[in-house]
Write a structure and sequence with these properties.
The chain is of the alpha+beta class. The protein has three domains: 52 residues, Roll (Structural Genomics Hypothetical 15.5 Kd Protein In mrcA-pckA Intergenic Region, Chain A); 76 residues, 2-Layer Sandwich (Alpha-Beta Plaits); 76 residues, Alpha-Beta Plaits, CATH 3.30.70. Helices cover 21% and strands 25% of the residues. Bound molecules: uracil (URA).
Length: 235
Amino acid sequence: MRLDRFITSDGRLSRREASSLVRRGLVTVNGGTVRAPDFRVDPEADDVVADGRRIVWRRNTYIMLNKPAGYVSSTEKGKTVMTLLGDEAGRPGLFPCGRLDADTEGLLLITDDGALGHLLLSPRRHVEKEYLFRCDPPLGEKGFDILRSGPDLGDFTARPATAESLDGGSSGRIAVTEGKYHQIKRMVRAAGSEVTYLRRLRFGPLELDPALGAGEWRYLTEDEINSLRAAAGQK
Ligand code: URA
């Protein structure tokens, strides 16, 4: 793994901050100063100290990805979200926690913590997911009331949602506590419109970091991991 990436792995520093520390000669690997951010380290074996702080390798990996459109939320071969992670994708056991459609953008949690992932996705936990959508034609207040009441989608009735109209109803924010296939698109269709753009802003307590451009990712901070554990009912 690259040295600058390893330094960010406990979620305290951004990639830019980590690179800057390395270039300024403030990072040692096994006692020797290394000034190349792309220097390869073995996270299990090498002793890395950045600005006086030893980097302790986490047993599990928790990644926030700002998913761009055009990528599949899967670990299979092809143009998957995993290909956006570079050499991190090679860590065994990493999986996207929940799915976004290929044309949906925004917050995707990727982890190798199967127990936490399972709890967060459990329908019994009711972990809230919030989305921004654009739709055509615009939805009136009646349409938003349908979203809020939880429309009948044929094979199931959606649970009541929180929804707010934006830009005269041509877009909106919606928070749902379930994650059925094409859920938001189907709810908006049931309300009388079609989704033309969809972006996930929040997954439980975890908010999409506005500093992440499309396709960029970072490790979660300790606070973010703890807030997810609390949302999942984990100690
Ligand atoms: N609802 C959808 O319709 N698509 C997504 O990707 C996520 C939620």
